[in-house]
Amino acid sequence: MDEAHGLPSYLDAKDLGPWAVYLEQVERVAPHLGGLERWIETLRRPKRALIVDVPIALDDGRVAHFEGYRVQHNTSRGPGKGGVRFHPGVTLSEVMALAAWMSVKNAAVNLPFGGAKGGVRVDPRRLSRGELERLTRRYASEIAILIGPAKDIPAPDVNTDAQVMAWMMDTYSMHEGATVTGVVTGKPVALGGSLGRREATGRGVFVLARAAAGRIGLDLPGAGVAIQGLGNVGGVAAQLFAAAGCRVVAVQDHGGCVHRAAGLDVAALRAHVAAQGSVQGFPGGEAVARDAFWSVPCDVLVPAALEQQIGAGNAGAIRARMVVEGANGPTTPEADDILRARGVLLVPDVIANAGGVTVSYFEWVQDFSSYFWTEAEINARLERILLDAFDAIWALAAERRLDLRTAAFVVACTRILEARALRGLYP
Ligand code: NAD
Question: What is the predicted pLDDT for the residue at 9?
Fold first, then answer.
């Protein structure tokens, strides 16, 4: 570590990306931690970071090498937990930030997990199904020294799904010589997955948007909603907003942006994306420029794609009454300040998208006990956990005059550092 900058030596100060955003969020929580501030350095560095080479045979006989990562940010409160991302933009510092946000998220909703994340620097759209399976299996083999049901439990994230989790589970099980369903969550239901897991993150976004709307006197029926990203998170959230009578007025994804003030037909739009790969060319709305998305008049804005989408350059243009973060880290600290000054309520990622890991927790518990719950039970328990966490964070924010992100970090970091202090240092 470089003591002067507090930066790990393996990171370039000019290229910190989301990790710099996370560090600034830690700065903001520091004055609110009381005596636990003594332990704050724990939050500023990952516990472990593994970089792996992932060589695979391509269908044409060539060998391609990809770079993979698994980072455990903190395991003071339990095993590492966090998704695996396949994306050409994945870097070590991005995975570090995503792992750190998992530590905060799991503590914010009081799940008995630490935080971890993984990724491979690859564009999976350019791989055949066979190549994707080989990539997944080799990556799982390479990180098998770190993962396990009691050590670190991966799950889906951007461009990974239940099938990818099935391959990871099978690879790990082959190493162990026994079927170990609890090593990953977000698996197919036929393989020890949980009902409701695939929809859980989007459902959580909707449940918390509804709770936050209630706090600011916004009626959801008729409200306008704009969503960036129509994948697992944004797609399910869009459907639930539409079912609640909202108008989904704009959707942007990697391919384009569509707008319809009266509300897009979400089912038709999702079918278009399933067939064409993107919202681009959807006949039921007008195409608009990518940048125009941010200034579309709406009540609720849901970023559900990637990090650092709302920054100093576009936060001033946002015309929503609230931003509900489906993605991890979509808003920079400068944008947080701009939105707050303009009276836009922000429901932060660490609670807004915690529905996915909450049902992952249920899946892990069900796998351990080999006893599976109904979807109604799962959704009821999910809502209870998210709404209790939201109420506690809202109350703390009101009491200490904090924004919801800082309040969520205070709740979460207090839990993490209390555990750290109780455990003490080894040896
Ligand atoms: P996904 O791969 O299913 O969907 C990603 C979406 O983002 C797609 O619609 C894609 O077109 C869009 N996108 C990608 N690049 C974009 C760009 N440059 N501009 C606009 N749109 C772009 O991924 P997902 O699982 O829905 O994850 C989305 C976000 O939610 C990520 O930040 C992820 O970390 C976070 N998240 C996911 C889960 C989960 O359970 N899947 C849980 C918590 C948080």
Answer: 76
**Angstrom distance (rounded) from CA 154 to CA 74:** 14
Listed in order, the ranges of the chain carrying CATH 3.40.50.720 are 198-352
Dig out the tokens for 354 from the structure: 């915690």
CATH no. for 198-352? 3.40.50.720
Ligand 1 atom, smallest distance to 255 CA: 11
What's the order of all strands across the beta sheet hosting 115-121?
Answer: 48-57, 63-74, 115-121, 80-87, 152-156
Identify the active-site residue in 14, 47, 81, 117. Answer: 117
Helix (H) or strand (E) holding 335: helix 333-341
pLDDT by residue (tens digit) across 260-294? 999 999 999 999 999 999 999 999 999 999 999 99
> Do residues 262 and 222 lie in contact, with contact meaning Cβ atoms separated by under 8 Å?
no
Find out whether 221 and 400 touch, Cβ atoms under 8 Å: no
Please check the confidence at residue 223 and state whether its pLDDT lies above 60. Answer: yes
- The string of pLDDT tens digits covering residues 94-121 is 999 999 999 999 999 999 999 999 999 9
CATH architecture, range 46-180: 3-Layer(aba) Sandwich (3.40)
In the chain, residues under CATH classification 3.40.50.10860 are: 46-180
> Count of H helices and E strands in the chain?
12, 12
- State in Å: Cα 289 to ligand 1 middle: 20
Q: What is the DSSP string of 374-399?
A: -HHHHHHHHHHHHHHHHHHHHHHHHH
Query: 160 CA to middle of ligand 1, Å?
Result: 10
- Compute the distance from residue 369 Cα to the ligand 1 centre, in Å: 31
Mean pLDDT value of segment 336-357: 98
Task: Give the SS3 label for residue 161.
Answer: coil
pLDDT at residue 53 in the model: 98
Question: Each residue of 396-406: pLDDT tens digit?
Answer: 999 999 999 99
Q: Is 205 helix (H, G, I), strand (E, B) or coil?
A: helix
Active site annotation includes 117? yes
Q: Provide the pLDDT for residue 2.
A: 45
